[in-house]
Amino acid sequence: MKAIVATKYGSAEVLQLQEVEKPSPKKDEVLIKVHATIVTAGDSELRRFKMPPLFWLPMRVYFGVRKPRINILGQEFSGEIESVGKEVTGFKTGNPFFGSTQIRFGAYAEYVCLPSKYAITIKPDNMSFEEAATLPTGGLNALHFIRKANVQQGDKLLIVGAAGSIGTLAVQIAKSMGAEVTCIDSTEKLDMLRFIGADHVIDYTEEDFTKSGKKYDVIIDVVGKSPYVRTVKTLRQNGSYILGDPTLRGKVKGLWTSRRSDKKILFELAGYKKEDLVHLKELH
C-alpha cells in the first residue's frame, strides 16, 4: 500500500510517498481502508518534534531518538472496514467508519489497523467522509473541556483561540447546552465564529478582553495565550478556567489559585473514549 512516511524529524520536506507493507488486523483489531484524513497541529508538531520541555524527553524516547519510529502520521480518519479480527463484534466488512488513531497515528496511508476498543465508530449517513474525518480530535477535546468545566444552561462562556478545531466544536457544543458564548480570535475568523453560533466575538488584535469589565462563568483557553493573572480576575466566583495547552509554570499557578480561592483552574488532558465519539455523532 502507499503511505506518506516521515523519514526524519523536520519540515514538510521530510515526508515522502512510499510503498509500505499493508497491515493485517490482529484478533481484536479492525482494518480500515482510509478515505479521508486531516493534517492536525499535533501531526506537524510531532513531525518537527516541537514539544514543550516537560514532554520532550519522554516523547522522544517513545517516538524515536534519532528518527521517527512511528513514521506514518495522521491522528484522525474516515473510511470503511476492510476486515475484522476474529474477536471483534459490532463491526463488519463494509461499515463506513471514522475515528481517532490515538497514539498509534498511521492515517496518512491507504490502510490502518486499530484496536476495536479505540475511539472509532460507524459514520452517520448525513456526514460525508471528509466531514467525519474532521471531528474526532477537536470534538473529543472540546467535549472534555465543556464537561470538565461543568458548563450549564445560561452560563457565560469565553473561548480564547476559538477558530481552531477544538474551539469551533466547543462553540457548537456549548450553544446546544444553552450557554452564552463569547469567542476570541483574529479579525478574519470572526464572521465564521458568528456563523457557527457565537453570541459575541472579540478581535484580539483590537481589544483586550480582560479590560472590558465583563465576568465569565467559564473560560477555555485553547491556545495558551491568555494572560493568567488578568484572566483569573475576569472569572466569577466559583468559575472555571480551562488551560487547554498548559505549561509547567501554568500548572503550578493553577494549583496555587485553586487552593487559595474559590476559582477552579483545570488542565487535565482529554481521554479518547469510544462512548464520547458516539455522543458527538449523535449531536450532529
From TrEMBL:
InterPro entries of this UniProt entry? Answer: ADH-like_C, ADH-like_N, ER, GroES-like_sf, NAD(P)-bd_dom_sf, YIM1/Zinc_Alcohol_DH_Fams
Which Pfam families does this chain map to?
Answer: ADH_N, ADH_zinc_N
List the CDD domains hit by this protein, alphabetically.
Answer: MDR1
**Leader sequence residues:** none
Q: Where is the Enoyl reductase (ER) domain?
A: 10-267
Highest taxon of source = Bacteria
MF annotations from Gene Ontology: oxidoreductase activity
Protein's UniProt name? NADPH:quinone reductase
Instruction: Give the source species.
Output: Salimicrobium flavidum
